[in-house]
């Protein structure tokens, strides 16, 4: 271990003190879940499979918020701002550039980069301006609400960028889906099997990559800042730089969610940056357990599915349930419900082993 | 003798309160120095000025002949200053070991990190507790852990704000021996302390701070023999 190559040492960070789950048992479970996710389309209607990619689209934003809030301790209430910026960027770019020559993939990268750049500028002023705690939440929420208001008043024909009409509160539509150039003809990623597998692959790569990141030196400093920023600074760390970096990475992931969502539904509206949209990621991440990537992932997926089932009975009703869920979490399991279940199970097995 | 740390006419006010007033202070490289004074004398504030947590209203701070008056806290730490706060500043939700990893990772070769931490845990008498959450340690152990984090940076100058508060006499004595060992290895120490037995154990020189001003300075015997010093602790002198 001591003489392992840097690459081996980096890969070893896939499990560590900042992530739940280690050893054979966990990775066997991971492999089973992944195999089930890969096999699922064989047992389901391809229309349903395409529809259900919807759930995956949001997970990137949730993982990003877990990094910023759960690991770094900065509660951003406005991750939807970066979701929206990337989503509109993707729309404007692809409507103008078209879907040939892999230009949609280029647009994806550029749109995510735009949201990262926006996060870097906003984050710079927040962190270096020493805006902490609730104020960070208030500022980031204000930003997303301002963007929503702004986009909602772009209904007139004068609000167009090239061929792309912004269309106000009705939203922008008609942008092409992600399209992969291929020798036998381009693969258009409609909500169907190829999109399902691509999104799943992205999710696995980013989940594993983030596991390595949070167990790295960078992740160590991030949790140190969450626990005690003054102590972290007095160990010689430029804490604002670390907070900013986490914010940019987490916001780029929100941007990725925005692009995937827009490509999936060929549609984006200002409401995606509104109050309700901004609050939901907080609920997903808090309910699952923001302090860990895996509980965030599982929690978000469960909450999204429950929300979807409730929406059938009325979306207002579903939102009330989400609010109640958040309150219950804060009161009963402040570190997250999935997290509390995992911790309970670990305590039980430890007691059994001790016997 | 060269000065490792020097403050010139250092002033800090909080509103109308003059917390440090024209403090001229110099610390010799390699010495063990104690800072004493009644509660509210401005000792912790003086530390915060040295660390850059507060900026002075006027005056100058030199560290190893470099002006650090306006430097950011993390820059001062990287230049070789380290601190143990008055209230233990540890990462409560992280394991004892992880606390030390965070302190050491930034200047220790990753291949040697585990070994170095084992040695430090041994030195701190915390090997058995390394997997525990730091927040679950006893008060004395928390103090030691934070001292461990502070010395893990291998600083040239170590600031200790009441390092033995809440420790048993045995623990206090052990801490003193630990600090003497570090000093013998070349670390300069400046400690705020109330326990006179401890001051006697470690200090080569003592400075008395009173109402934000240097009130007296000398060996421990000179200080304890000074009737004016005895009086400020009884609250009878106000200048
Ligand atoms: N941030 C602050 N704002 C206002 N007053 C402060 C602040 N920090 C310390 N003080 C005041 O400065 C004086 C000195 O405090 P301190 O340096 O903590 O003293 P000591 O460590 O010697 O007990 C006290 O009267 C304290 O109330
Ligand atoms: Mg004090």
TrEMBL record, chain A:
Superkingdom as given in the UniProt entry: Bacteria
Keywords: Cell membrane, Membrane, Transmembrane, Transmembrane helix
GO cellular component: plasma membrane
Listed InterPro entries: ABC_transp_permease (IPR001851), LivM-like (IPR043428)
CDD domains in alphabetical order: TM_PBP1_LivM_like
Transmembrane annotation, as ranges: 26-43, 55-73, 80-98, 104-127, 134-152, 195-214, 244-261, 267-286, 293-311, 317-342
Subcellular location: Cell membrane
UniProt GO MF annotations: branched-chain amino acid transmembrane transporter activity
Major localization class: membrane
Pfam families: BPD_transp_2
Cell membrane as UniProt keyword: yes
Entry keyword Transmembrane: yes
Membrane topology: Multi-pass membrane protein
Xref: PANTHER family: HIGH-AFFINITY BRANCHED-CHAIN AMINO ACID TRANSPORT SYSTEM PERMEASE, SLR1201 PROTEIN
Name of the protein this chain belongs to: Amino acid/amide ABC transporter membrane protein 2, HAAT family
Gene source species: Paracoccus laeviglucosivorans
Phylogenetic classification of the source organism: Bacteria, Pseudomonadati, Pseudomonadota, Alphaproteobacteria, Rhodobacterales
Automatic annotation (TrEMBL), chain B:
GO molecular function, one term: ATP hydrolysis activity
UniProt KW Endoplasmic reticulum keyword: no
Protein name per its UniProtKB record: Amino acid/amide ABC transporter ATP-binding protein 1, HAAT family
GO cellular component: plasma membrane
Annotated ABC transporter domain residues: 5-236
Annotated transmembrane regions: none
Pfam families (alphabetical): ABC_tran
CDD domains in alphabetical order: ABC_Mj1267_LivG_branched
Organism classification: Bacteria, Pseudomonadati, Pseudomonadota, Alphaproteobacteria, Rhodobacterales
Keywords attached to this entry: ATP-binding, Nucleotide-binding, Transport
SUPFAM superfamilies linked to this entry: P-loop containing nucleoside triphosphate hydrolases
Organism, scientific name: Paracoccus laeviglucosivorans
